[in-house]
Amino acid sequence: MDLPESPGPSSIRELSHCYRALLGGICPKLSGGEVARLLFSGVCGQVPERDTQEGAETAWELIAFSLTLLRKICCGLSAQSLDGAVRGPWRDILSLLFDPMDLMSHSPPLQGAVNPVWQKQCVQAFSSSPPGPELDACLWSLTEVVKKLLKQSHQVLLAEVVASFDCSLTALCSKLLPEERTEVDFSSSWRTTFCLLLDLLEVLTASGFICGAGLNLRSQRIPAVQSAALLMTVSCCSDYFVKKRILLLLKRVLLQKLGEDWSLEGVALYVREHKDLRADRCVLAQCVLQAVAADWLQSLQVERAVFFGGREKEGLKPDGSMLRAVSLVLLKSVELHLQTAAADSYLQSLWSWLRRLDVSQTEVSHSCSWISLLFGEQDDDLMEAASASLHERSFRRCSGWDGYSVLEAACASGCNPHCHFVLLLQSLSFDHSILLDFLISSETCFLEYFVRYLKYLREDWQGFAAACSHRNVKRLADAHGSEPGGSVPPLEGSSSGIGLRLVEYDSSDESNEETSDGHKQSQTTAALMTDRSSKLKTKPCSSVIQNEKVCPTAAAVLEEETLNVLDRAVFCLSELRQVVTRLQTKQLFPYNPSSLLKLLAQVENCYQRSPLS
């Protein structure tokens, strides 16, 4: 990149000509590339002898002038005060600065110290500027600076930057977020400002995870501290897009998936491992549960899905991403407050709200079907929802709340982990290769969920058998209005990842090779399945369970429909164990699966020991 050799007073004169041209509503005399280079060197304070007192003063003067001109360009373009023919060249200048030149990574806040000129302008805007271009520019610039520092892991400088804006940002949030329940009518300027503020709140909350508990500034905890105001905004705001953005932010905070849209890579994983801000998540969860108890869900309006072209189409289902955000916020809040005795009532409120919105085209008679129906093939959210449900039920069992009555209550509240897992297998057509894709993928929390569920299954085999009895293939299809063996239909806007294999694992030339122990156990399991099927041919078919709302007893495992689902589920897990064993033997599996293989073998042992009569 070619920069001016001696920027200084001459650069200020040239930038002054550009400033006057901008105020006059005309194009600059210099080319776009020349103006971009002048602004780049000015913002970076590149002057000769900067280490001297005179050079430092010149540098700060150049930085201040360059930032002023840059802010004026941004304001002029965002306010559309420039004519169409003039707007293009100024927009090209910004494009050059922020794309090929990457100005944000070279700006003074990222060069070892906080630029006092930039800091002063932003603090003044946060403290006194109304929603509009000037405040928007400061919110955006601070967001980009914090993002860059997060990606580059500059923890010391990151803490310094966040601390310098803590008071002014806290005051800004108090000004923009409503304290009382009043109708909030967002104009276009308010909408833009509020969305930029939400982006900033996300990066600041992520910085709290990265910096650790040593900093713990109020501006890093606003989603928790101001959670009541955010939820009230969702209820009162007339702008649907703003409501959706708030709920997506709360969802990411509760799931600890801050920055998932920024490609932070390793930083995102580090955020998930941090435990210091669990208290803030619990505060947010408690606020959500209090709002739900006060009929907050009934105030939420969900628009219909929009097809390509932007218009609503008659018969489309409600906005799937909005429904998933609301549902996960509530499910994670219940998980974080496992001791509450009203957990089932919160979930019943959620299912009632979904019924009122007519999410399903058919009546959902079994509440456990809601998880699959809501999240469909949205793999990451589906695993988070199933994991939250599993965690809640595991806590109840560890607390001595076990027994058949708890199994009934789990189905009634829609949180029976066995039903969820059987529904997942059915949606995959019991294809073990898709489970293998999930196991080696880092895009979902499936491995963590799968290991925890297998431990749960090992301790509650009869509960799993009863869920298989309750969720035979035909009834699984009927509950969702689909054909037997078909996948659960997703909501509008969901992805279609399930059903696509990443790799054809069985295409290897050595795919038939097995270890001796694994091959022996597989033969035992397959033989037992064949034996049970042959005995059933001489056994009269039992009647199908009539009452869908009550979880059946373990004796229902003997029914033909039960063995259909139970056999297919166990055989799927058996095939998964075989292929993982084969990949481990060839050192092709990405991690050590020994514990996972042990759990899968224990599940097969439970199946082999289960009685037929």
Automatic annotation (TrEMBL):
Q: Where is the Protein Lines C-terminal domain?
A: 570-605
Record domain Protein Lines N-terminal: where: 142-468
Please name the Pfam families in this protein's record.
LINES_C, LINES_N
Q: Which domain of life is it from?
A: Eukaryota
Segments carrying the region annotation (Disordered) are 509-534
- UniProt name for this protein: Lines homolog 1
Annotated organism of origin: Poecilia mexicana
